[in-house]
Amino acid sequence: MTWKVFTLGFLWAIISLFWIVFCSVQDKEWWIGYGDINNICDLMRSIANDDIRDVGIFFSLPVFFPAIYAIFIKKKRYWFIYIITLLISGYWLWQFFIRYKLCLW
């Protein structure tokens, strides 16, 4: 692994995390911490069905294009790319799916 792969992977991870957060923020998520709303579950219960995750999911999918390009097209097999892809995928799943599924318990 070269320093270029490390630098590009690190930049890709940082930009991806910011883009995922930007695409996954609910409209009134800034209400958390005020009044009776303490977490995302309370927020989802208190507002009308204003879920825009499907649009955010669509716009955040290009985050995975660099990994697809590097792994499948260029056939680069660096462990660092796999780790970064796994971390970004986990964070993407958390922001769009897992944190909402935990509200059902």
From TrEMBL:
The chain crosses the membrane at residues 55-72, 79-98. InterPro entries: DUF2645 (IPR022553). Keywords: Membrane, Transmembrane, Transmembrane helix. The keyword Transmembrane applies. Pfam families: DUF2645 (PF10840). It comes from the Bacteria. This is YjeO family protein.
